[in-house]
Amino acid sequence: MNLIARFSNKIKDQISLFYTMFCSFIAIILLLVSFNYLSYTFFRNNIKSELIENNSLNLNTTVTNYEKHIKLIKNFLLGFLSSNDTQLLKSGSTSTMHYEIVTKVQKDLQHTLGNSLLYLDNVLYYFEDRGIVIEKDGTRDAATMFSRFYRQPDYSIDFWNREMESADSFKIYPAAAFRIDTAFAQKPIGSLMPVMVKNSYDHHFAFIAMLESSKMFESFHQPIANGQFLIFGPNGRPVFSSTGGIDLPPLPANSAKGYFKIKETYFFYQKGAATGLTYVEIVPNRRLTEQIKKLNIVMLILLLLSLFISLVVSFVIAKRFHNPLASIIRSIQPFNANIHPSVKSSWIKEFNLISSKLHDLSQSNQDIHKDLNAKNSLLQQFAYFSRLKMIQGNAGLVQTSIDNNKPYRLVLFHIDLKERFKTEVDSDPYRFFNYCKEFINAHFTELTEDSLTFQVEKDQILSILFTENDAGDAHLQSLNHLVSILELDVSFCNFTIAVSPIRKQSADFAETYRHVLDLVKQRKLGEDIQVFTEPIPQAEFIIPSPTEESELMANLQSGNDTVTIPLLDKLLDNLSKSGALAYQFQDFSKEIVNKTIKILYLQNISINQFHNGSSPRIVSFESSFAPVSSPRG
């Protein structure tokens, strides 16, 4: 047993790539051939059921179309039967017939018959007692109409007179070939299916509609090669046949729809609910049998041919792949001793030599790629930062996306943390600013992959968005979505957003940055997110006036808070009414604090005793956007 196991392991170690690939190809080929054969067998076994289902659906569609159309024609004729014009024509005699009504009826018929979707050749007003017919072309003698203009031996005037005596109010007659046989014209009209509508108790007047049966068949039915379509009336008499000959066995009496098979022919039938007509589709199975036989032969030839070609191609591919691989193996053979034992997991000896080297190369490539991406990102940010600050140096040698004069716009975010963040959020502010930068960068990267977001100041984040056109509507829509997300953090910090117009020249980059810096300064007092896309004109004002400033300084020096505080409230109110911006409030407050500190120093008063031992805070411009609910706040 040990000898067999040792021999088996030796064989595994010595299996060549050529034989491995060739055997693998053969296994795949056999699998695919088996799959194709099973699929074909399944298809062949189910093709008959698919044929039955498809023909049943086809017949159902045909029945629906015929039933709807015949119902439409019936309602159309019943509407004519109950119309005032028809009643007036029925009430008059031949000599007293209202000819203006006859003219109107003819025009209505011409207008109606102009609709080709009704498949009506004509509608005849048949007055049996008067022996006249009114149709689209005029008024004619009934005998002449049925013997000359609609000549058909089975539908003579005697036939229609007998039908007038029946109690049926609606009746469909078998389609037949009609023709015109007059002194001026002898030509066929085509296959027409007469339909009669009359009052059950009126044996002297009826409507006879001539349906174009051939056109109806072409429009309502999807024919099948070598198939036959039949329509039978409620009495079992044939009404229409697509091929002329009718050879149909008795249909099942207890079923409204279904199919049966006799020899090599399928018979599909369905009875119409509205008309009582029975529709039959005859499909010969001989065509299907012949196709399956041909398909079997073609399938067998294709399988054998594909199997032969696949084996040849597999042999050639395996051989061609193995030859250069053998050369590679020989070239790296000296490094065989350095292969790590964990790499030898393949049965193919060539792979054992290559995999370790490829693994080392791949690992080195990944490390280099990560390092290059990180350094390239830093270089890109440094290049943009140098252009923003207009720093001369080697940063201009770094190629950036903006150098291609691609349309771009700048979006500057100014973030100011509130006291609530410092007291309630256990997080480093710098980590929060970095989180905001990454979030904004991820948001805009989904819009444009080459967008860049970086931090230009400790509380300022700049995004460079590129666009393919001058519209840039997608930028503004994306920014609106971002603003709706940032509103969740308004209770902890304020956001001021400045959006520049679209620029096309890279030389305008520094100027555009200064433009968004100026837009950020337009923030007013408030707790909301403020977005600025263009400069807002500001009124010039001088606060305080010289008189108010003298009064303020005098009361500050004397320490008169009962006058100083109301005076400061008044000055803040004046700033608010004049529409001052947030940084102007801050400049004013900074000036007052600085003057107060100077007075304290001049009077040798230490400021450490105020504000619980802490020095009064002199806020800078960056914090000028701190939320202030009111001028006195």
In short, what is this structure?
By secondary structure, the chain is of the alpha+beta class. The chain is built from 16 helices and 17 strands. The protein has helices at residues 2-14, 17-81, 84-91, 99-113, 142-149, 157-164, 213-220, 286-331, 349-389, 419-424, 429-447, 473-486, 509-520, 546-558, 561-577, 582-602; strands at 120-127, 132-135, 138-141, 170-172, 176-181, 186-197, 205-212, 228-232, 238-241, 257-262, 265-271, 278-284, 408-417, 452-457, 460-466, 493-499, 530-532.
Quaternary state of the chains: single chain
Q: Major sheet, described briefly?
A: 7 strands, antiparallel
Annotation, overall tally of beta strands: 17
Radius of gyration over C-alpha positions, nearest whole angstrom: 48 Å
Shape: elongated
Helix/strand-derived category reads alpha+beta
Q: How widely separated are the two ends?
A: 94 Å
How helix-rich are the residues, as a percent range?
A: 40-55%
Detailed description of the structure:
The chain is α+β, with helices and mostly antiparallel strands. It is built from 16 helices and 17 strands. The protein has helices at 2-14, 17-81, 84-91, 99-113, 142-149, 157-164, 213-220, 286-331, 349-389, 419-424, 429-447, 473-486, 509-520, 546-558, 561-577, 582-602; strands at residues 120-127, 132-135, 138-141, 170-172, 176-181, 186-197, 205-212, 228-232, 238-241, 257-262, 265-271, 278-284, 408-417, 452-457, 460-466, 493-499, 530-532. Strands 1, 2, 3, 4, 5, 6 and 7 form a 7-stranded antiparallel sheet that branches. It has a 5-stranded antiparallel sheet with strand order 9-8-12-11-10. Strands 14-15-13-16-17 form a 5-stranded mixed sheet. β10 and β11 (265-271) form a beta hairpin. α11 runs antiparallel to α12 (473-486) and α14 packs antiparallel against α15. It is elongated and about 135 Å long. The model is unreliable at 6-14, 336-344 and 617-633 (pLDDT under 50).
